């Protein structure tokens, strides 16, 4: 009897779970495996092209310094965008979680998070309108400032950074806010009753306790920024060549898919490394 | 907090952030009503870009396709995701933790990698580019969001309600249909809205998977931007941003997202 | 150590008057309770003394210093919070040492005083633990050690025992009192548990709706409550206004202010089957309605002319063989009659 029940239950679990996970397998896990296989091919194995197994796609990465330099450029972009977002977003999250009280807090929080869930491409495009020479920013600044300035940030690294920070800032605000909100106000009161000043409280209570949230947000920003290609293309123009744009080119312009696959996997390795390094702290956040 | 000066400074900072987040969007919306093609000021109100948009069959087709894809994605992802959430919540079994971790890659791996991997795989199995491939990809990206949102709602579900229903003689399916599903319906609606937003706003995966001349709206916008600025793109972008923000606002109401209530 | 004096403190939150002209003295080295129902302003008063809240008017003196404009960081107080508020990211020793490090006492001095404090609360071996590894009672001891390790001028406790279960709470009451005596620190604690207030304190301040209703030694406020609210809040009281009938002889104690209400606490009434003959007692007759056995003590509800009278006494002191519906005699010493001046 019990085995019949157990079998029935097993069948039901299987029936409920398998469609979703089958889909994920077909759409995510098999493609990633296929890409790994592809990265060891000499040619695209479609049609009647000659192809063989090779490691030359990975060798290409190490033979010229071009790819490594671009990867470093992408990592550096990721670090800058993450750092700026943390410095800008954490105080903002703090104000939301600990300074603003009552009903307005929830509304403001939603207002901060909302843009994140709107189309990122369109938001990057909106910056193109603002930042271009003779654009709104320049006209606005010249209307306010007493002297004439010439602002043409368009097609520059700062433009890319601004656009990316705009895209991913809500991430760090969201995760920091959740972590900060979980900190009992009594802890801050207790520290004050022991004569601690604001800096001590920030350094010894608030930062250590919100670190997991802060780090989660930083990872959530760093990972996609390292793989970004659309934002540098639109806002960076000719200076916007990054590791992501090179991968894009392999698939849509140069059609060297095996090389693109190899570069994608190198990027994936970097991403996994970052996640692995961050995971002990992130796991601590769950307990 | 004492130190009202610091508190005031903090609120000012928050206001600046909100300005930073919304200003470009408003500028774009503003410019879509400006007569000048090159965003020249002074502002001269005009609806001509919206009129031109209405006559641009390429954009209209892409928009229709995007909405269609989003609706199909939403239906599939919501059904599959809800079923999986119920199984993950209701049953204890070996490998559950592993299955939960498996939801992570679609969210955490940059879409550039997932998108190119899908392109290779779909070509490998002979499916190639096109709307079916786009839908397969979108559902996979939306599934984890649906599962996370529905599971969060399920976590607030009191399991003794199901036991109570059982004690009154209801069988498993009746319990699910009459007790569990009504409780999580707000979670399912929120999950569906998230799925719609993920698909409708998705650019990267669509970019690699859609066929040239048969692309989704974001892909069309991207190629248009790279060709040069046109105010029609402004107009359609304004419409997109209004639609996606409205969808998320409704989703936030249903999912209790980010608010302790 | 220092005395604390609160004079005419008023504090409003919007239209709500949380504290209304509150005055109370806390002499040096005493143990004081602020007692009242929730929303009475007792916690607001404690947080005003601590310096988390600034009063709209009135003065607060700690020792010789008027502190009403001093923020909490500069008041040199020790405080224990309701949920203990131990820093979860620090060990027990680091929690206790937090205030010492802020005061830059030096590493060796810090270590010595942490050790002393841990000994005082009998947690000598637990310095390296994290708060989540401790039991509720142990956390409470750490919180206490943390509050007193800096030798503050006054110790403030915000419902310090409310998170503990009943048995542990009684243990901790004695422990708290022992430690307070040992270091002789002026201590103010907030509670809504009248038994706790009566057991622990040298003086109780009773608050209601932001007003200080009565302040005095436990025995005084228990026996001479100023109004019905206080009488009922500190324990049960039988109001004697409507007692009548054959043999009813309610005597008024000499100290009763004119126009006041008479009452008697359930544990001061004796039940007998015939009219008691002693002097200096009040008597009346009543019908036994219900008798509830509860171990060593028993509770009887009796009825006189539509008024329920509650009697609590040792089970063996109740006459044997009495049954519900019996007409019985009640008596109590005149000096045990409560004299409630207000209403």
From TrEMBL, chain A:
CDD domains: TM_PBP2. The keyword Signal does not apply. PROSITE patterns: ABC_TM1. It is found in: Cell membrane. GO terms for biological process: transmembrane transport. Residues 71-278 form the ABC transmembrane type-1 domain. It is a multi-pass membrane protein. InterPro entries: MetI-like (IPR000515), MetI-like_sf (IPR035906). The keyword Transmembrane applies. Pfam families: BPD_transp_1. GO terms for cellular component: plasma membrane. Belongs to the binding-protein-dependent transport system permease family. CysTW subfamily. This is Spermidine/putrescine transport system permease protein PotB.
TrEMBL record, chain B:
Gene3D superfamilies: MetI-like. InterPro entries: Bact_Polyamine_Transport, MetI-like, MetI-like_sf. One of its GO terms (biological process) is transmembrane transport. Keywords: Cell membrane, Membrane, Transmembrane, Transmembrane helix, Transport. Residues 63-251 form the ABC transmembrane type-1 domain. The chain crosses the membrane at residues 12-33, 67-89, 101-123, 135-156, 187-209, 233-252. PANTHER family: PUTRESCINE TRANSPORT SYSTEM PERMEASE PROTEIN POTI. It is a multi-pass membrane protein. This is Inner membrane ABC transporter permease protein YdcV.
Automatic annotation (TrEMBL), chain C:
Keywords: ATP-binding, Hydrolase, Nucleotide-binding, Transport. Its EC number is 3.6.3.31. It comes from the Bacteria. Belongs to the ABC transporter superfamily. Coiled coil: none annotated. One of its GO terms (cellular component) is ATP-binding cassette (ABC) transporter complex. Residues 4-234 form the ABC transporter domain. This is Spermidine/putrescine import ATP-binding protein PotA. One of its GO terms (molecular function) is ATP binding. It holds the Pfam family ABC_tran. InterPro entries: AAA+_ATPase (IPR003593), ABC_SmlMolc_Importer (IPR050093), ABC_transporter-like_ATP-bd (IPR003439), ABC_transporter-like_CS (IPR017871), Mo/tungstate-bd_C_term_dom (IPR008995), P-loop_NTPase (IPR027417), Transp-assoc_OB_typ2 (IPR013611).
